């Protein structure tokens, strides 16, 4: 089992070849994408796909995303591809948009959780693209972490969760977006966003003005999901995450401050994930032993997204008793951040 650093600008082909040989041999390889690290296998190899589920402890009701290396390869995995799918692909691929389409009959059951549709995307990452091309097959890959844990945005996160369970981790450094792809269902008459992600709702509305967004989520259930990322409790740190929300951001921030102060006075170990704008206010609590993670500016939500899971994992490593965070704006990638926070949260405190 090894972590192999690979340079994004001049990737070493022998490393890519070695990783591709593992994929062709029915083994698993963790690799970087622009969203989070993926745990990849040959889409058409049934036992390799089974291995993904067992290594991750992922329920078999949760389907996988199939990663392709060009728009042309869409027809290898999907049938009856609607015109709108090609329009979206030309606009947003390669990129963090996953399309749900009717599947080709030879896609293994486990990839689609037994369902009739397949989730597919063309990733915008040099290493991922080279791995797919050299392996000569579409690569099915969920995030390379233990199921329900925060997604891995560094090779070290993958190592922490899957050490000893997979033969190779390609280390391409920190992932660029830090949150998973947007999942868009095109199998019904009304296109619907099933999971907000790296392509914003506003961007999709520029192509599909009346796109719907899914409101409710599944608990870990025995019901097969239509798409990945639908289960409610997900992306969670080990420490309970407490999410503060309400109409007035000042009131919400203050309530979080008071709560943190109270917990510290009870000798709890408390972590807080803060935007830059709150750092000054929380300084006294940092002096009292509160552990602060800086997510970045509230005006640069793309940076916050990139830092989110790594901050969660750092507070987990510090063995805090709980992690506090407050709601952030919902524009652009903010919607995806909000989605991940709601699902990572042990409790939501309405102020």
From TrEMBL:
Its EC number is 2.7.7.87. L-threonine binds at residues 35, 67, 121, 141, 181. GO terms for molecular function: ATP binding; double-stranded RNA binding; L-threonylcarbamoyladenylate synthase; tRNA binding. It catalyses: L-threonine + hydrogencarbonate + ATP = L-threonylcarbamoyladenylate + diphosphate + H2O. It comes from the Bacteria. One of its GO terms (biological process) is regulation of translational fidelity. PROSITE patterns: YRDC. It is an enzyme of class 2 (transferase). InterPro entries: DHBP_synth_RibB-like_a/b_dom, Sua5-like_dom, Sua5/YwlC_C, Sua5_C, T(6)A37_SUA5, TC-AMP_synthase_SUA5. Gene3D superfamilies: DHBP synthase, Threonylcarbamoyl-AMP synthase, C-terminal domain. GO terms for cellular component: cytoplasm. Residues 13-199 form the YrdC-like domain. Pfam families: Sua5_C, Sua5_yciO_yrdC. It is found in: Cytoplasm. Belongs to the SUA5 family. This is Threonylcarbamoyl-AMP synthase. It comes from Candidatus Magnetoglobus multicellularis str. Araruama.
